Amino acid sequence: MAEAVERTDELVREYLLFRGFTHTLRQLDAEIKADKEKGFRVDKIVDQLQQLMQVYDLAALRDYWNYLERRLFSRLEDMYRPTINKLKTSLFRFYLVYTIQTNRSDKAQEFFAKQATELQNQAEWKDWFVLPFLPSPDTNPIFATYFSRQWADTFIVSLHNFLSVLFQCMPVPVILNFDAECQRTSQVQEENEVLRQKLFALQAEIHRLKKEERQPEEEEALVQHKLPSYVSNMDRLGDSELAMVCSQRNASLSQSPRVGFLSSLLPQSKKSPSRLLPAQAPPQAQSSAKKESFGGQSTVQPPT
């Protein structure tokens, strides 16, 4: 809340300067400087109480606490009244202990002289009226606890926490919520940007996974040179016909007899029957042929 108040003060100051309300701006600065609520800064309020105790200004200390009760504590429910009374009692006891520790017993006597009417009927103050007259109150069983450092620290922390909770629960004007709404809007925008980046990353990952799934299929298609079905069938049909023609040609070449080159050029009707060479004729045919040749020679007579 303190940050929102400080930010709103700056916005109002900027607006007054923009509008030229210089007199109002000077008055605002003066009132902010004398602000008893310290811009709802808990640490500054606690420091102010301690500073008043250190200068032994009992009247200012009492007036400042009464201001806090009237301005802030009065907004609380009645169930918090016992807590407020305990804090007030501890504050005055803290002041008394400080006067004794700093050897200012006269300030302790002054305290009881001014507060006697208010405190004499309260049971928790019955034993404290003899405090200024004790030689060593820090060793007294009744007051020894209040002279310890632990008790003083506990009181300061309790007062600080109480004021913090009070400021957080206190209703605030709309202008103070403006800064909170701006911060909330900025936070939502940052969250949306983070979610958008996550979405882009997921989309990129999905695209990469799909690409990896399609890659083996594409590689297989490139290796096999896949073509349309009808083209593949035509290729297979042409290959089979070519193989059949080659096999038939080889068979015809192996079965056909060897003929001379000139006889292959002649028509079939004019081709003479092929004769076997003498070397290729059977032995009986060769012997009969020899006999005929000898017989022919014997019958032929030379002309007269």
TrEMBL record:
Sequence segments annotated as region (Disordered): 269-304
Main location: other
GO cellular component, one term: late endosome membrane
Bias (Polar residues) ranges: 295-304
Coiled coil stretches, renumbered: 185-212
Superkingdom of the source species: Eukaryota
Entries under InterPro entries matching the protein: ARMC9_CTLH-like_dom, WDR91
GO biological process: early endosome to late endosome transport; negative regulation of phosphatidylinositol 3-kinase/protein kinase B signal transduction
GO molecular function, one term: phosphatidylinositol 3-kinase inhibitor activity
Subcellular locations according to the entry: Early endosome; Late endosome
The keyword Cell inner membrane appears for this protein: no
Keyword Coiled coil part of the UniProt annotation: yes
Pfam families assigned: CTLH_Armc9
Record's keyword terms, sorted: Coiled coil, Endosome
Compositionally skewed regions (Low complexity) per UniProt: 269-288
Occurrences of domain ARMC9 CTLH-like (ranges): 47-169
Family (UniProt): Belongs to the WD repeat WDR91 family.
Name the UniProt record assigns to this protein: WD repeat-containing protein 91 isoform X4
Native organism: Physeter macrocephalus
